[in-house]
Design brief:
Elements lengths: L28 E4 L2 E7 L4 E4 L2 H8 L2 H7 L5 H28 L5 H11 L4 H4 L5 H24 L4 E9 L5 E11 L4 E6 L1
Antiparallel strand pairs: 1-2, 2-3, 4-5, 5-6
Helix pairs in contact: 3-6
């Protein structure tokens, strides 16, 4: 007697919200909107089948474990953030000094000099300022800050714009711009170059 061959259908496991209460899955496991057969890891931004075996397998991956573990406790993070802020302030101050008084090529030597001269401070220990970083700090941090300050200070008051073009030895064209205006905050006529 021949038995009819039936096609076996695979059972598709649906996501269960009670899995989110499990201590191993609590903070990162979520359902995929629109697909009840998938689960989502919010840390890794990866989707996988809503099967317990797949969820456990993902939980044990090295990639997930790195995302899951906070690398530092909060007190250590605060200390590191203070160090970073001190170092950033020192680098910004040196970059501002270089922009005002020197060419950015001096940053290679000035950054090293300050790091060696002020070894006792946390800011100097992490200070790494050379010409490329100095240029980036000037262009992407300091210039936008002073530009917004200048626009606020000028407001709706009249101003004069002075322009000067020149070409240096390397045939690089330069444009100098100076804004002259009456500052109500300082109560005097001011000239600023941008």
């Amino acid at each position: 007697m021949d038995l009819p061959i039936t096609k076996r259908t695979n059972y598709k496991q649906h996501y269960k919200s009670e899995w989110e209460q499990n201590k191993d899955f609590k903070n990162w496991l979520k359902p995929v909107p629109g697909d009840p057969t998938k689960a989502l890891c919010t840390y890794c931004k990866r989707e996988f089948s809503a099967k317990m075996s797949d969820i456990k397998r993902h939980h044990e991956t090295i990639f997930h474990q790195k995302k899951l573990k906070p690398s530092l406790d909060t007190s250590q993070q605060k200390i590191n953030l203070q160090r970073v802020n001190q170092t950033c302030e020192a680098e910004a101050s040196l970059s501002l000094f270089i922009a005002e008084h020197y060419a950015t090529s001096a940053a290679d030597h000035l950054g090293s000099l300050c790091a060696n001269a002020f070894q006792g401070t946390e800011a100097a220990k992490n200070l790494k300022l050379h010409r490329t970083k100095c240029t980036a700090v000037i262009q992407m941090v300091l210039a936008p800050h002073f530009k917004t300050e200048l626009i606020k200070d000028i407001g709706d008051e009249p101003y004069s714009l002075l322009l000067d073009e020149s070409t240096d030895i390397s045939v690089k064209q330069n444009l100098g711009a100076v804004v002259k205006y009456f500052s109500r905050t300082q109560n005097e006529v001011i000239s600023r170059n941008q």
